[in-house]
Specification:
Number of domains: 1
Largest sheet: 2 strands, antiparallel
Strand content: 5-15%
Distance between the termini: 14 Å
């Protein structure tokens, strides 16, 4: 059985806990600063969405928005984060807040998910 939402959030947080592994304005970047897919083995920096996609195993650039995507843990986790952000998109939240604000917000999301046992 795969990860649930709270486990996905925790794993995503771990990926971007160090500010040197966090980015803005793209899902993921390589060490050289090149934009790469979130699940690319060269990725070493992720935005919040990219970290979720990397953990949950969804390649956003290949997404066809099929039934498989809408039932994926990536989709469920992203929608949960957006509910916690009062509807603000995850990329918009990530790109308009500091790293410490993103981590604090993610911690709040984790607590909410754990309280809901999801």
């Amino acid at each position: 059985m795969g990860l649930n939402i709270s486990e996905t959030l925790k794993a995503a947080r771990e990926k971007i806990a160090d500010e040197n592994h966090w980015t803005t304005h793209s899902y993921a970047k390589s060490f050289d600063g090149d934009v790469v897919n979130a699940d690319n083995k060269l990725a070493c920096k992720w935005c919040l969405s990219g970290a979720v996609y990397a953990v949950a195993g969804w390649n956003i650039n290949a997404a066809s928005y099929s039934t498989a995507y809408y039932s994926s843990m990536s989709y469920k986790t992203i929608r949960f984060i957006e509910k916690c952000a009062d509807g603000l998109s995850v990329p918009k939240f990530n790109d308009t807040h500091s790293h410490s604000e993103v981590i604090s917000f993610l911690d709040e999301c984790i607590v909410k998910a754990e309280n809901l046992s999801i």
